[in-house]
Automatic annotation (TrEMBL):
Record family assignment: Belongs to the bacterial secretin family. T3SS SctC subfamily.
Keyword Transport among UniProt keywords: yes
Protein's name according to its UniProt entry: Type 3 secretion system secretin
Keywords: Cell outer membrane, Membrane, Protein transport, Signal, Translocation, Transport
A cellular-component GO term for this protein: type II protein secretion system complex
Main location: membrane
Superkingdom per UniProt: Bacteria
Occurrences of domain Type II/III secretion system secretin-like (ranges): 411-567
Chain segments carrying region Disordered: 591-640
Amino acid sequence: MSLPKDPAAVRSAYLRRAARIGVAAAVAAALAATAPQTYAGEVPLGARNVDLTAREQPIAQFLQNFYNQIGVPVVISSQVTGTINGVFRGPATKIDADISKAFDLVTYYDGGAAYVYTAAQLSSRSFPISGSASRRVDRAARQLGLLDNRNTLRATGDMLVATGAPRFLQQVDELARGGVQAEAASPTLQYRVFYLRYGWADDVNLTVGSRQVTIPGVASIIRSLVSSDPNERAGAAARSESPIPAAVQGLRGQGLATLGTPNPGGAFYGGQDGQGTLGTPLANEQTGVYSPQNPVRVQADTRLNAVIVRDVAERMSAYEELVRALDVEPQLLEVEAAIIDIDTTKARDLGVNWRFDDGNGGIQFGRGPDAPAGLEDANLVRGNTSPKSAAGLVASTIIGNGDYFAARLNALETEGVARVVSRPQIVTLSNVEAVFENSRDFYVRLAGERDVDLFNVTAGTTLRVTPHVTRDGTQTRIRMLVSIEDGSLTNASVDDIPVVRRAALNTQALIQEGQSLLLGGMTVQSDTTGSQKIPVLGNIPVLGNLFKVQSRSSGRIERMFLITPRLASIAAPRSTTPAGLRYDAPASGFESAPLPAAPTLPSNRKPAKVAPGAPAQMLPPAPPPAPEPYGTMKPIPNPS
């Protein structure tokens, strides 16, 4: 007679048969009904045999005696209830499997003790840990042999779900806590390369006059955000300017090979301190050495114009969003600057009374006999009038019609009152400084006891404009940061060194699209003394003064700057030239020369006769060539 498959029925049938036919027969029937099961953390029963007798004994007490005989500590749940009768002799493995099957028990061994629960105590628990930590916990559980068909692990996203006995769940919790702590101590790092399309990955260094300008790249900006060094956070992402030393690095008679290297005395040739030369330890960002305190590394690859980031995988999405926000297409602008010199003295002598007013502002040069009082050398803006300046013209206004201003300026040029010194045009990007420099350099030699130093002196005009485009609905405005430095050499000298005159102007302005900014107020006073004489007679002592004319003149030049920003587009117009190479030969100079006349035949020579024949057939016109498609410009995909 076989036992029923249901565990409760197996247990009741097992107890009834034990009382009726004897303990030995009942145990044999139970062992035949079920086979021993293997669980996670299997109890080390081995080949031990047990000999137990139970008379209406609680199952908890029976299990306590059972595990005491095999020498394994046991922890029995309070929910394990029931009584048992019979004599149990034989292998401990089979008896344990029979008891578990009959009473629907689950035995879990954690490596130190056996835990006995009812099947109803099996449950599930979720652990919010990362994917890498979940894999680490699952790998540890498999190595410890904790998993089977009842005690399982399942990872879903950033969650680990464990199902099994209470002690199994407790062990998984301990493994998960240890995995999180281990991940925090030594996280799993990943490398990611972000390719840039519009921005620069590395810092951009510019030399403007006597200053070295450093514009931070995307890598420096990100590095300053994630760095733990307060000094690096404060200065890495900021634009910096540093003056270039005026003294030229000397050789001390040692040749070019000694530049930047120390001399035997320990000092550096050319006054350098040795920083930045070979042998200087590299920064941590350049070495790439792993640091547990700050494992984040951000590097710029100038060859690919890409930013390389080393960090944990969970933060890579944040880096991707940040790079996408920084690498945006900038607005292209064309900045035109007209440098104008106005001879105010000549304007007064000629009686020129010229005033410009386009409705947004006005300005007047010179003073004619009909000029009203209070308008001389003044800047006229609606609602504001600048007072007259004794030093020269003070002009700062916004002009809405630059073409009309240029036409009036041409009229002044014909009178010799105004002169356009230069009209540079620079294409730049929004928030990127455009620099125009027209200067002269010379070197002053300073002789010392043992060596000679050279100092650089620069004089000229430097114009720096940083435009920024803002859009408010349909209205486009341009904010400009303007810095002007105007210098020139004078006739005066100190120790045979010419004196340099410099004037500087720094301002900000906000104008609308299509308007221009007019800046002025820089005055140059010139005094000229000359003489004219009659040859020979003018050289006679005393009497020669009668044949000489002494002249002395003074003038004042007003320098003005008219800055006009214009929005531009990077979309090139379609060309009508077919695709391919084209070569234009340079002009030889003979293109406009008349062709020689055709030679004439002698009068006694008759033209040759042509035999009559069939009329010539006209060839059909050639079909028009198929239009060649214009090339399309496609963005080059980033390598992946």
